[in-house]
């Protein structure tokens, strides 16, 4: 067995982080690798023999595959080299291993049922600084059953299993108490990030656990609660529930619930929760305080009638205090289904159909006080579940409620409601007038800000407008209104409003006004800015209409602020057409039409731009084929579409700087014509090459063999006639002959031309000492250009013996 024993001083330094193990003698260090694993563990993963003792160090280095470790004595398991990695294996700490430390390891499991670190019926262990990813079903990163007083610290945990369910939670506890889960970074694609459950054989809830300062990133499936607590007296404190490290659109918006308390007696405090469907859910008997919650914008089909879409949802006997709830995109602020105290919260809701505080069903004795509410719907709504189940004896006191809805408080769905001492403004109402109450409700002592209003909001207009001012007060039916139109601050010495105000001047008019009631109360100054703009805007495009051989990035602009609408099919655009939001690509032929609409509603004329996108190269041709000709040729060049042709006659490759073809080219002499076409989009054809040989000279006899009047010529030899150039048979080819001058008769002869030489051979032996005449008539031969032998040629010779 390979064992490395370190010096006492080195061991003390290595074990400074393992203070939970009290060992009086020096610890031994065992290097655990894929090669040495079998020296220390049997095939099942249990420690062999008794050499490894309590307090010893198992120092893991390198990667170990498919191996488990069952720790049945208190040990320190680490990787001093920081290379230790376990793949598809579990570190199991058993009862006898209580007091162990597992630090600095990397564990990556992909198989179902394979966990990273499993604590079973053990206590006082520290699991710190490990990086664990488990993607298989039931493949938890860190799991505890029947284990107490353990520290789960500073680990980086993730799971990316795609099967929906709770069985992949990175941290899961069952029947485990007094554990400290702190400063962990957790990503879960499907399941709860931290789950206090009834996990494990025999089950059992979890109590007195501390969940603090963790960062949890989940997804918006109903199986994913960032922190789920089953059991009582647990604390979730200062945790961050977020989506910042996940790609938008890949993992959704965030955990379905931020923190969920399924049992009573839990405390949820100081947490920051982003992008969850329900920030905090507490079934009852919980304290919810000091949390900051941001709801998310749901771009799916959300069920907004469900209380799940809320900042906080509570059952009975909950204390909800000092929370900040921001539901900027939709959902309820606080959804209350049981008797609870809702105090000193700051609530902002944007949904016009979801209230800031929604009280539902047969509740009794709910206290709502000292909250600050800004809402686009009713601030506090009491809603009955049935005729026998409705909120009763609700107290709504000392709240500040500002809403754009008709009422700040609507208690018509409850009974025996007390509404007192609230400061409230709704749309056109304040104080007691901002309450819709039921018979038997007590509504008293409520006030609100004296707030005048204008029936026309700030904006731009393409013609003059008429503005009416109003002010509502509980005691004064007609508060006085004073205003200015020059932007100065109005006072009681300013113009008194007595009727409609006309705003028709081109440009900016700043209306400021105040209201004063009979008690002398002066409202805040209200400012409205009106821009009268009758000038029609202009619009332009960065790419002029034309023909192009590449796609074009088209950008539109207008002369002032506003919107541009456009079409690409040639139809006339309207404000219902596509709204310009940034440059777009034109990759095919189209007709762009667009118009601009400024903020006042003035419309520009419709602009039309036609783009021809032609990415196909043209073709070109010459009317006269390459060849040899005995006359001048008129060459016409053509191309397959509109454009230009460029050419040279000297054999050089043409460019657009060379001659542009405008008329037929006269080929009077030999030339090499090269040409190419360029269409209107700029596409270029290949370069075409055509060689013309213009030959107007007729062939001539330049030499004969034998020579004229030669004697002693062979009676059997071949007679050769050489021409000035290569020739071929002409129209009088058949009239070429050899004549015996003695007899006056033509002799049979064979004729053949090779290049520029005509070979004549008599078919029989010529007579001795006899004169013969060779006759080649005009037009007997011609050259390749068709030029003919111009006149007849004759010569004679005398044979020998």
UniProtKB/TrEMBL annotation:
<dbReference type="Pfam" id="PF13229">
    <property type="entry name" value="Beta_helix"/>
</dbReference>
<feature type="domain" description="Right handed beta helix">
    <location>
        <begin position="258"/>
        <end position="422"/>
    </location>
</feature>
<dbReference type="InterPro" id="IPR012334">
    <property type="entry name" value="Pectin_lyas_fold"/>
</dbReference>
<feature type="domain" description="GH29D-like beta-sandwich">
    <location>
        <begin position="457"/>
        <end position="527"/>
    </location>
</feature>
<dbReference type="Pfam" id="PF05048">
    <property type="entry name" value="NosD"/>
</dbReference>
<dbReference type="InterPro" id="IPR039448">
    <property type="entry name" value="Beta_helix"/>
</dbReference>
<dbReference type="InterPro" id="IPR059177">
    <property type="entry name" value="GH29D-like_dom"/>
</dbReference>
<dbReference type="InterPro" id="IPR011050">
    <property type="entry name" value="Pectin_lyase_fold/virulence"/>
</dbReference>
<feature type="domain" description="GH29D-like beta-sandwich">
    <location>
        <begin position="544"/>
        <end position="608"/>
    </location>
</feature>
<dbReference type="InterPro" id="IPR007742">
    <property type="entry name" value="NosD_dom"/>
</dbReference>
<protein>
    <recommendedName>
        <fullName>SbsA Ig-like domain-containing protein</fullName>
    </recommendedName>
</protein>
<dbReference type="InterPro" id="IPR022441">
    <property type="entry name" value="Para_beta_helix_rpt-2"/>
</dbReference>
<dbReference type="InterPro" id="IPR032812">
    <property type="entry name" value="SbsA_Ig"/>
</dbReference>
<feature type="domain" description="GH29D-like beta-sandwich">
    <location>
        <begin position="625"/>
        <end position="689"/>
    </location>
</feature>
<keyword id="KW-0732">Signal</keyword>
<dbReference type="InterPro" id="IPR006626">
    <property type="entry name" value="PbH1"/>
</dbReference>
<feature type="domain" description="SbsA Ig-like">
    <location>
        <begin position="695"/>
        <end position="799"/>
    </location>
</feature>
<dbReference type="Pfam" id="PF13290">
    <property type="entry name" value="CHB_HEX_C_1"/>
</dbReference>
<feature type="domain" description="Periplasmic copper-binding protein NosD beta helix">
    <location>
        <begin position="83"/>
        <end position="219"/>
    </location>
</feature>
<dbReference type="Pfam" id="PF13205">
    <property type="entry name" value="Big_5"/>
</dbReference>
């Amino acid at each position: 067995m390979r064992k490395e024993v370190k010096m006492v001083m080195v061991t003390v330094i290595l074990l400074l982080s393992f203070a939970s193990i009290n060992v009086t003698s020096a610890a031994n260090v065992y290097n655990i690798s894929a090669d040495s694993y079998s020296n220390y563990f049997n095939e099942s993963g249990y420690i062999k023999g008794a050499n490894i003792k309590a307090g010893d160090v198992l120092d893991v280095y390198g990667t170990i595959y498919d191996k488990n470790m069952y720790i049945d004595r208190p040990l320190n398991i680490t990787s001093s080299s920081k290379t230790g990695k376990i793949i598809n294996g579990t570190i199991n700490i058993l009862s006898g291993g209580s007091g162990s430390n597992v630090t600095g390891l990397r564990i990556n499991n992909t198989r179902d049922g394979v966990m990273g670190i499993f604590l079973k019926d053990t206590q006082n262990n520290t699991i710190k600084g490990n990086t664990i990813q488990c993607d298989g079903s039931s493949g938890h990163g860190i799991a505890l059953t029947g284990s107490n007083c353990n520290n789960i610290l500073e680990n980086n945990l993730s799971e990316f299993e795609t099967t929906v369910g709770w069985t992949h939670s990175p941290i899961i506890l069952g029947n485990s108490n007094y554990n400290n889960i702190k400063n962990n970074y957790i990503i879960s694609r499907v399941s709860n990030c931290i789950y206090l459950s009834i996990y494990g054989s025999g089950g059992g809830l979890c109590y007195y656990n501390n969940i603090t300062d963790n960062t949890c990133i989940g997804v918006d499936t109903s199986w994913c609660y960032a922190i789920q607590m089953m059991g009582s007296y647990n604390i979730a404190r200062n945790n961050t529930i977020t989506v910042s490290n996940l790609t938008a659109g890949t993992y959704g918006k965030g955990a379905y619930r931020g923190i969920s308390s399924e049992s009573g007696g839990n405390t949820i405090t100081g947490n920051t929760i982003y992008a969850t469907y329900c920030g905090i859910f507490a079934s009852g008997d919980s304290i919810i305080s000091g949390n900051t919650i941001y709801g998310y914008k749901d771009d799916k089909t959300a069920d907004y009638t469900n209380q799940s879409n809320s900042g906080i949802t509570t059952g009975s006997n909950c204390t909800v205090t000092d929370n900040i709830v921001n539901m900027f995109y939709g959902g309820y602020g606080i959804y209350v289904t049981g008797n609870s105290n809702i105090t000193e919260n700051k609530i902002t809701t944007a949904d016009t159909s979801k209230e800031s505080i929604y009280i539902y069903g047969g509740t009794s004795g709910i206290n709502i006080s000292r909250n600050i509410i800004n809402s686009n719907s009713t601030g506090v709504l009491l809603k009955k579940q049935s005729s026998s189940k409705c909120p009763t004896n609700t107290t709504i006191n000392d709240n500040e409620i500002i809403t754009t809805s008709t009422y700040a408080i609507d208690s018509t769905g409850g009974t025996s409601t007390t509404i007192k001492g609230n400061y409230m403004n709704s749309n056109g109402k304040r104080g007691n007038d901002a309450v819709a109450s039921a018979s038997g409700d007590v509504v008293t002592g409520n006030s609100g800000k004296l707030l005048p209003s204008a029936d026309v909001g700030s904006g731009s207009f393409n013609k003059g407008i008429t503005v009416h001012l109003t002010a509502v007060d509980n005691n004064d039916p007609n508060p006085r209104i004073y205003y200015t139109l020059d932007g100065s601050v109005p006072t009681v010495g300013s113009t008194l409003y007595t009727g409609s105000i006309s705003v028709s001047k081109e440009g900016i008019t700043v209306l400021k006004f105040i209201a004063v009631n009979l008690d002398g109360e002066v409202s805040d100054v209200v400012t409205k800015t009106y821009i009268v703009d009758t000038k029609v805007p202009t619009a332009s495009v960065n790419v002029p209409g034309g023909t192009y051989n590449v796609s074009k990035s088209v950008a539109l602009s207008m002369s002032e602020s506003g919107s541009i609408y456009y079409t690409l099919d040639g139809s006339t655009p309207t404000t219902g057409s596509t709204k310009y939001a940034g440059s777009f690509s034109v990759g095919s032929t189209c007709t762009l039409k667009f118009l601009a609409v400024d903020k006042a509603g003035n419309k520009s004329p419709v602009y039309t731009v036609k783009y021809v996108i032609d990415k196909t190269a043209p073709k070109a041709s010459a009317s006269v084929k390459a060849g040899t000709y005995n006359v001048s040729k008129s060459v016409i060049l053509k191309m397959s579409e509109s454009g230009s042709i460029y050419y040279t006659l000297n054999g050089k490759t043409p460019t657009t700087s060379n001659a542009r073809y405008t008329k037929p080219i006269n080929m009077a002499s030999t030339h090499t014509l090269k040409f190419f076409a360029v269409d209107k989009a700029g596409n270029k054809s290949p370069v075409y090459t055509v060689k013309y040989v213009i030959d107007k000279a007729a062939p001539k006899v330049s030499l004969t063999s034998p020579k004229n009047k030669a004697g002693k010529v062979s009676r059997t030899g071949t007679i050769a006639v050489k021409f000035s150039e290569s020739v071929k048979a002409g129209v009088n080819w058949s009239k070429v002959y050899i004549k015996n001058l003695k007899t006056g008769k033509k002799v049979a002869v064979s004729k053949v031309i090779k290049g520029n030489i005509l070979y004549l051979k008599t078919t029989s032996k010529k007579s001795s000492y006899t004169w013969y005449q060779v006759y080649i008539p005009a037009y007997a031969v011609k050259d390749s250009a068709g030029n003919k032998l111009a006149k007849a040629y004759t010569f004679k010779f005398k044979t020998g013996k």
